[in-house]
Amino acid sequence: MVYDLYVITDEKIGNGRSHTELARQAVAGGADVIQLRDKNLSGRDLLDTAVAIRDITQDTGALFIVNDRLDVALAAGADGVHLGESDLPIRYARRLAPPGFIIGASVSSVATAVRAWEEGADYVALSPTFATGSKDDAGPGHGLSTLAAVRAAVPLPLIAIGGINAGNVAEVIAAGADGVAVISAVVGEDDVTAAARDLRDRIATAKARVR
Ligand SMILES: Cc1ncc(COP(=O)(O)OP(=O)(O)O)c(N)n1
Ligand SMILES: Cc1nc(C(=O)O)sc1CCOP(=O)(O)O
Ligand SMILES: [Mg+2]
Fold it and tell me: Signal sequence: where (predicted)?
């Protein structure tokens, strides 16, 4: 699986553009993964939106992940679900998921990353890597040293999330991330497609330098 550029949709930060518009524009710019994240939609509206994004990503080969809601992810035919440290535990989600279904996990330390790996996560996301204004309860950033320590401890794909942008993405990749998950650096830009393309190019350049 390729997780280089992982874009999370957010209609507030997206300045009135819908989840589906944001997803379409991000995949046009080369996003490898789209995550649908909305804490306010009803289950039914979230499912309708997830089915629409499923159609968009299916056409392009991008992965589609639903935040928090395993039920909606399964019903929509998404590729996976993202679960945080307060969401459904990974080992229980694994019992309900079909073979090949992706379960991503937020982690905040080497210890929580190792636990997520042991419980069956398919990727881990260091949450947050830097401070972010896009999630109220994210807390302070863990920084590049923690990112590098998680990289050394866990052999899963490692995503950095929180405060990542064109200016710092190269150092995040150099510290060991396989990919970056972003909201504002792509979804908050006027031209979502151009922002995604630019970030993806920077990731490719940084990977060519360090690997
Ligand atoms: C890729 C990725 N990483 C981390 C998160 C955060 O998940 P969580 O801690 O459960 O917080 P919420 O996003 O649910 O508010 C994420 N969504 N995606
Ligand atoms: C959805 C999310 N989760 C985070 C975590 O740390 O768990 S940070 C975050 C938002 C990331 O947005 P931006 O790229 O604008 O900083
Ligand atoms: Mg969550």
Answer: none
